[in-house]
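User: I'm curious what two different proteins look like when written out as structure tokens. Can you demonstrate?

Assistant: Sure. I'll show them one after the other, since each token string lines up with its own sequence. Here's the first protein:
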Amino acid sequence: MIGGYAGKLLRVDLTAGRCETSPLPDESILRQYIGGIGLGMRLLLDEAPPGVKATDPEAPLLLMTGPLTGTAAPSSSNLAVVSFNFNTPFAVATGHSHGFWAAYLKHAGYDGIIVTGRADKPVYLWVDDDHVEIRDAAGVWGQDTRETERLIKRELGDEEKISVCCIGPAGEAMLPGASIKNDRNHGASKGSVGAIMGSKLLKAVAVRGTSVVPLADPTAFADVSQTWDKSIMAERKPGEGSPAVGSLLAKGGITRAYTYVGDSHMLAGKNLTDPLWGEDYSKRFVEAAKDYTITPKESYNCSIACSYDCRINSGKFAGFTASMCGGGENMEGAAGMIGIDDPDEALALTDYFDAMGIDSSVGGALMGMSYELYERGLLTTEQTGGLELNWGNYEAAVTLLDQMCSGEGFGGNVLAKGLKEASKLLGKEAEACVLHIRGGGINMHDWRPAWSALLGQIVAGAGVCWQGPGVDAWTTEPDLGYTEFAEPRVPEGKAEAVAKTQIKKLWEDTLGVCWFACWGVKGVLDYSAETIALATGWSDFDREEAMAVGERMVNLQRVIAIKRGFTPEDEFDVSNRLLEAPTEGKSAGISIQPHLERMVHEYYGEMGWEAATGRPTPATLDRMGLSADL
């Protein structure tokens, strides 16, 4: 087998209770799709029965690594979870998680796991190098994600060298937004991949591996990887662009840098009704964090360590440690959206969302809608079962989340239906203020001041998720020629920036490394292409071929969507709240809505798609090698 790959896939049929291996596709396919979401989507398209629903037993759930996973490449920890999308039925789902799970799977000798079928009782999978076993999960079914990890490690007798990915009660209940969690601080959620795992009665997958990833040129690979790693943290000279995201968030950096989000009026607070609230809250969180005990938690071969454990040292949560991911999105979904003012409560509630295994951008948006309706007198305690949903009510949020997972009360009978269905049950005012794109939860910031980031969420090919961030906020992309932030809140240039950054990002999603090791890093296109060449032996692989792979990913997502029923109208299935002008803040009175259709069509032009249908032209399909697929 060529370097960078273990050479085989693990196939698990839960209906038959059978585990077996198969070789990877041939080298020409690997070079076109690499790994991660790329190879995952290729396998999904090739192997899924036509018309299958996301939660049908025949629908595959793929847990994929990339050729750089488990190597000396920076942050070589990326787990790509690929399935059909639970929230947006025509779309693929591509979730990402980090930590140690993907590296351990690679070290066990597998490039990915393809799970099909449905067990007749709850089970978990144990992968220990060549030993693979389907085990009874009765002892952990019903447990939250934290306890599931702990109990499985204890059962298997190894606390240090095993990694466990699992679902919580939200995944067991197949809730919209259900996530797959691993290594406490990490998880994949977009497309509700935890609900897919729950539909198969698969509670967890535990892995331990002892092998080494083969490389074509290990010495040169290590040298380039070291240069790449240093570039993540490198200071920028004038004209070279802004610092990379990895450097901004390093060592739990969001606890120091969160004021940027508030000052930009992009903090998602009070269901996006009050941008100025977020400005004040972000400052109070950063001030409160000075009294917390912050412990950065790195992933495999990660010098960034954006995730962190946060011990609260005083107040009613004194002694509690929240295990947090790297950015502020999860906290805004869980706490900001319902106006939680107390940073301690915000941490505790965010941790509880993760423990229950649900994406806060879905659960938080459902609660944000409900709290707003209650504050406006459009939702009563009679409807909520006595819950008073005033802004900032922490206890009510915990109860709602418990109800969603148990199927009881207002949370279980209304909110558990998901963003679009729940808002329909609550009426037109709810439909007007619920926050979603095509039924999925956005990456939770208020994107109305950053139009390229908002456009990137809208045109993302895997439901709604991070794909084409543009260059309005967070960082520039010097490798694409963007060394200055774009002018905000104007339509010009946004479609081009979204198309280029989406292509680059989806290339990076095939590699098996964390996006934060790539986003805004000067020289990363050359580093990533060169490490692929040195790992595999494809000596002529370069940045141009890398970008061609990324462009193929964008088109492959669209091919899957069209084959599964996408229509041009679906592109604009965007909640009103995201399209209305804020009443205060930097975007007061300014909306993307009058420009959106033109911007989407400009994006189509950048991608080589038909303006009327959003369908890749025959020439584009032929250039991408996808003509036979559509």
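Here's a second, unrelated protein for contrast:
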Amino acid sequence: MKKLLTLLFVILLIATKTFADEGMWLVNLLDKQLYELMANKGLKLKPGEIYNVEGGALTDAIVAIDGGMCSGSIISPKGLMITNHHCAFGDIHSLSTPEKNYLEDGFWAMNMSDEVPIKGKSVTFLRSVMDVTDIVTKIIDSLDAAGPRGLFFMNRVSGIIEKRFESSLYEKGLSSMWRGSKYYLYFFETFSDVRLVGAPPVSIGSFGGETDNWGWPQHKGDFAMYRVYASADGKPAEYSAENVPMEAKRFLTVSAKGVKEDDFTMVIGYPGRTNRYISSFELREKFEILNPVISGVRRAKLDVWKKYMDASDETRLIYSDKYFGISNYTDYAKWENLCVDRFNVIEELEGREKVLQDWIMSDSKRAEKYGKMLGNLREAYAVKADITKVREYFRESMVRGAELVGLGQRFQGLISSLTRAKKEEFTLEDKEISNFKEIALKALNELDPAADRELFKVMVKYYLNEVPTSFYDEAFVNLLARFNGNSDKLVDFVYDNSILTSKERLDDFFNQKRAISDIAADPIIDVVKTIGVRQYNAMEDSLLKAAELDPSKDRGDYVRAMYEMQLEKDVNVYPDANSTMRLTFGEIGGIKAKDAVYYHYLTTSTGILEKQNPNDYEFKIKPDLKAALEKGDWGRWGTNGVLYVNFLSDNDITGGNSGSAVMNGNGELIGLAFDGNRESMAGDVYYVEGYCKSVCVDIRYVLWVIEKYAGAGHLINEMNIVF
């Protein structure tokens, strides 16, 4: 029962509070029974110590990074923030050069003046939440009465509700739960002066790489540190040398006591998306079509990049961030399918739907409202299956394929904008043209031409094999015919002749007056003309319209019906994750992964030395780290001569939770969530009790790396650490 209730709103207030007489603050979604369950498991805090509208509770130390891409926590009164290394990967990569490769060597600011501002970085603090369901429902009804809903209907609704609270000092955002069954207004503050403080080398932060990703046992030191800055008066502000470290309203105490089996754990963060109200029909589409296409095509893309990365350190630096960004979900799609099959998830959902249909048909009003819903969904997914598969192959092979193609699309976009401006000729004096040239030069600097050429050859083959010729643009058909259908020759011709594949040709093209026809003559244009998703969507719309089906509406009805049924049956339900703050609780423990295989819940530094391999990049460690591990000077951070590295808990997390604080029953930081396990990969659609685990870096290993390995003890001194 517990795991069905673990992904929850973090708002735990027993009391209510009004705001401008517009409604009630969100009340106690963690009911008394559930709170008592947490307390029995080891929670020592009262609800008001976790969240409090007056401030000073744990939630004031929890942040969303970059709008919810990751989570983090404040761990000092001076705005020091900790998150995962993989959440900081792109920032570290952007600062790295062949001469100063912070990815490979790590980065540590030994004083505040060395902390590096990260352009575009932001952290967001939740200040309060309000239930505005009744208000939003009235707004929707009034707008519906005025006419049909448009494409941006909910944007209009959000604008209206946010304007009602424009007197608030905070930013505002409206979120829907259970497909519009409930609405909540979030009040928050976003700080945009965020500076990198410290990050271990990738051989610590990503030790084990793809091989260990989504697996256990792991031995990653997956952490990085930033500092949040504010204006002199403590307000959010853009970067300025005059800004000062933010004075934290609350920061987490760090516990170096360690963990043991069955210890209570609690995670507060910003999980991105789950789909646990998915229908069996939608999941079958994902299982049979989307995941196989994604994992297959993206793996082929990664194989090309890896070949060139392994051959050159310079190329590795170019592609490391891109590779990391793609590989994570590629593996996820593969393991999700294995788990969906292993745990018979589709069959489980079909059983749930039988119960739902019986409940619907037991009431005449419900039967009128929802009676045809499941049948409609079944038919809709059958009708659109073929076009869904074709469209996904198109997207993965061409839209998300070679980088030249994306640049070519922007090049083609110049034709449209120049035509609209009625400019038949142009020069670099035109700002749009000079901007494009800068973009093109930057793109060339961020790819390996040989790797991208080979990648395009692989992607075009997927496109030709899986997408019917009826979807090809005439220009692409003619270009392919010019080489008698030989796609490798087509790609070589494009790369040898396009101005976008050579800095010299790019300079020569733009250093003189040109006409629109000169852009149109570039061979990449004949390729990108065939890249447009509208015809695929139009075919799907046509098929569904002919069958008089609207799966979008039926998907919404499905979730709302599930919600209504569970409420009537007095089942404690939680909404799908949607990048709003959530709490999940669990305990420390291992896992019986499969027959005769049981994994312990802790890994140690010994495992790093056992796995390290100088001939395998993913398991290569620096000589100074190897020496430090062999020396075994754990200082304050070891326990009985052992340094613990990672641990398992059964907290319910998903993407967006990366970097989330893992806390004990006192609300003290004991680790950071950074991964899930391969046995849990169906978790975004269906939670399987006993198999869904959170893989966490032990805070003791983090502290050892900071103090003993990096020599950044000044950061330790900022923290409040209990032993």
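A detail about the second structure: Residues 16-108+117-209+217-251 form one domain.
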